[in-house]
Amino acid sequence: MPVPIDPTQIDPEAPIFPIAAAAELAAMHPQTLRQYDRIGLVVPGRTRGGSRRYSVRDIEQLREVARLSTEGVRLAVIERILHMENEVQELRGRVRELEQELREEREQRPGARVFATSANGAVVTLRAGTRVRRQTDVVLWRPRPGS
């Protein structure tokens, strides 16, 4: 039975577990982990000496591989699933970064207002959260410092 991991206590990306510990946590044989590394399914970090070091995220992926394998999913399909899950994780991280940048921008410019302009040049101030028609261009107006 796999040993539970408390992800709040460990950086999920930190490569800290040697192969024996990772194999035990994932309830797999170390040779299986080596094979998955060789075929690029779950690739752990490496120490300067070349030893494999698995992260909490790697172990979660190994558990997912085991679950999918027992359901009869082929390794090539599992590899594609893991690739897409990694891509989703990266995109979620980028969205968090952009949301933080937007929050910081809003905090730095509390007087910024949003206007919409139509093709004929009419300008309308928009309230926060107002949806704009497709033919309308939206711009963010920022007052010049000292205006």
From TrEMBL:
The residues forming a coiled coil are: 81-108
Query: Per UniProt, what is one GO molecular function of this protein?
Result: DNA binding
Q: Which UniProt keywords apply?
A: Coiled coil, DNA-binding
One Pfam family here: MerR_1
Q: Which SUPFAM superfamilies does the record associate with it?
A: Putative DNA-binding domain (SSF46955)
The record's annotation in InterPro entries points to: DNA-bd_dom_put_sf, MerR-type_HTH_dom, MerR_fam
Q: Does the keyword Transcription regulation apply?
A: no
Q: Where is the HTH merR-type domain?
A: 16-84
The protein here is known as MerR family transcriptional regulator
